[in-house]
Amino acid sequence: MEIIIKADYDAMSEEAAQLVLQAWRKKNNLVLGLPTGKTPLGLYGQLVGLYERGEMDFSEVVTFNLDEYLGLDSRHPQSFAQYMDVHLFRHVNIKRENTHLLSGTPADVEEHCRAYERKIRSVGGIDVQVLGIGTDGHIAFDVPSSSLVSRTRLLTLTRETVKANAPYYEKESDVPRFCLTMGVGTILEARTVFLMASGRDKADIVARAIEGPVTASVPASALQLHPHVTFVLDEDAASKLSNTDYYRWTAENKPKAMEWLAKKTS
């Protein structure tokens, strides 16, 4: 587990984009798992910038999104399909057939979820999964009490999520109560995971996820079990960590260690 602490949200977003870029340089047909929400907006802006400057080509990139609201079709302004189109897909040269999103209107929910898992396996699995984290420790829509070996499935949204979404709908009865989401087990099968967190309101849960026990009460804590996970944090989100001196020391010395290893193996 690697912890990278940057000065602020913009620096955190730039660092995350550089990590994605490094992965793409190693594999141009990168299979990328993508989140939605406020946290990755800066990352997507950075990725668009990399494309516009000719530093990254999305023509062979394959994407899988984490989740979707049940009941919203892909044209609904609050759907995650629209979010991805507005903030990333329409701005880069990614092929639409290479973008995979859970449907909010499947004919058969259970079969659709199974098919999503099969599709991920059919392309060889996810190379890089990008995540955010909720203040309750959820990743994707995997809320506290989610099984740490769960797969893509139907979940009931929390009361807090429904309340937070209500201002975007004419009537409260129109707010989705259910979602489809990748499971914690699905996420853990990605070869590499980057989790981004920003802001003081995330500090407590970030500390629990990184330095606390592995528990279904904090789904993000399951990432401690992953062999290749990097937390990319801003100073505020990292402010409750107890081992920040070590994390900073490790990050500062990693380039030297990589240089030393390169000399030894050349």
Describe this structure in words.
The chain is of the alpha/beta class. It has one domain (2-265): Rossmann fold, CATH 3.40.50.1360. The chain has eight helices and ten strands. It has helices at residues 9-26, 41-52, 80-87, 109-122, 159-165, 184-188, 203-211, 244-265; strands at residues 2-6, 31-34, 62-65, 67-69, 99-100, 128-131, 153-156, 178-181, 192-197, 229-234. The strands form two sheets. A seven-stranded parallel β-sheet has the order 1-10-9-6-2-3-5. Helix 1 (9-26) crosses helix 2 (41-52). The longest helix has 22 residues, at 244-265. The radius of gyration is 18 Å and the shape is globular.
Q: Using DSSP, what is the number of strands?
A: 10
Portion of residues in beta strands equals 15-25%
Uncertain spans: none
CATH topology term: Rossmann fold
User: Structurally, how many domains make up the residues?
Assistant: 1
Distance between the termini: 26 Å
Class per helix and strand makeup: alpha/beta
Mean pLDDT: 96
Overall morphology: globular
CATH architecture field: 3-Layer(aba) Sandwich
For the record, the CATH class is Alpha Beta
Helix run count:
8
Major sheet: 7 strands, parallel
Q: Can you list the strand order of the major beta sheet?
A: 1-10-9-6-2-3-5
Write the H/E string, N to C.
EHEHEEHEHEEHEHEHEH
Q: What Rg do the Cα atoms give?
A: 18 Å
The residue fraction in helices comes out at 25-40%
